[in-house]
Design brief:
Elements: H1 2-5, H2 13-31, H3 35-40, H4 44-57, H5 64-75
Helix pairs in contact: 2-4, 4-5
């Protein structure tokens, strides 16, 4: 993830791990499934990395509505009808 974000130092490792965990949870919510089902999704890795990068880059002015629309588009094929 640090390579994707182009972060060289170790000073933000904790932050990046927290953002990565949050991104996984958000993607699980969007796909309406558990972690195992998310991992089987073709676009899961892309969605998680995109979300983590979005959280990292937009820490102070995030547009969550736009983020959710993008994630729904990425994960639409694997999204469950209901919880």
């Amino acid at each position: 993830m640090k390579l994707y974000l182009r972060v060289d130092s170790e000073t933000e490792d904790t932050l990046i791990l927290q953002l990565l965990e949050s991104a996984e949870k958000v993607c699980q919510d969007v796909i309406r499934a558990d972690e195992e089902t998310l991992k089987k999704s073709n676009n899961a890795k892309t969605a998680i990395m995109y979300t983590t990068a979005y959280f990292y880059e937009h820490r102070e002015e995030a547009d969550y509505k736009q983020l959710m629309l993008t994630l729904r588009s990425l994960l639409f094929g694997d999204r469950k009808d209901g919880f």
